[in-house]
Amino acid sequence: MAVKYKRVLIKVSGEALAGEDRFGVNAAELEKVAMQIKEIRDAGVEVAVVCGGGNFFRGRTGENIDRPTADYMGMLATVMNGLALQDALLSVGCVAKLMTAIEIRDMAEGYARRKALDYLEEGKVVVFGGGTGSPFFTTDTTAALRAAEIGADVLLLAKNIDAVYSADPRTNPDAERYTELSYMDIIDRDLKVMDLTAATLCKDTGTKIYVFALAEEGNLMKVINGENVGTLIQ
Q1: The CATH number of the domain covering residues in 7-233
Q2: What ranges make up the beta strands (E) of the chain?
Q3: 145 and 67 in contact (C-beta within 8 Å)?
Q4: In the Cβ-directed half-sphere of 180, how many Cα atoms lie within 13 Å?
Q5: Considering the entire predicted model, what is its pTM?
Q6: DSSP labels for 155-180?
Q7: Are 30 and 3 a contacting pair, CB within 8 Å?
Q8: Domain boundaries in the chain?
Q9: pLDDT tens-digit profile of 137-152?
């Protein structure tokens, strides 16, 4: 069966890599993510990944750390996750390249759009770390930006919940599950899919967004094949 998407960018949260540990990187969860990525790469899909960093550091924690410094600390956390994912992919036979928006010699390559495109066309998985390289921007915005830059067919938001709902279904059994929404729906209804800067950027660039649960085995391949397992935003 022909895949629906030929080039994708996956946003993987730090929490997804931590699993039940809730801090750091859980080896079993990391392997699951790597295997699902390898599965779609082996199907001929060009794959890029943006890592979050919430499993190591999340935002400003006190008045003694200002916002830019806290954001730079968060960028370093995404690099740590990027290094872990790069090695996990290599361990399952999937060539990966970590590129960072901040220069970290001997650990990763600096981000260059043309080089990233070359790697994708060569069949390598490109992992983006370091956020945008500037404070005040989330990894959601990084994902939206990189997806637009590489011309991804879709931005895949891997969540701990299987779709977008009108409210949290874990606390509200009457929450409505959406299979399709518009960009303006998530902005006007404040559905918390991603931050507003990222949502607006996707709207402006026409980047499709697909929200799904990565933890469910085989879900990533189902999304690539066009199966309805989450919420499409376009």
Answers
A1: 3.40.1160.10
A2: 7-12, 46-51, 96-100, 109-110, 125-129, 154-159, 164-165, 177-178, 180-181, 209-213, 231-233
A3: no
A4: 3
A5: 0.93
A6: EEEEESSSSEESS-TTT-TTPPEESE
A7: no
A8: 7-233
A9: 999 999 999 999 999 9
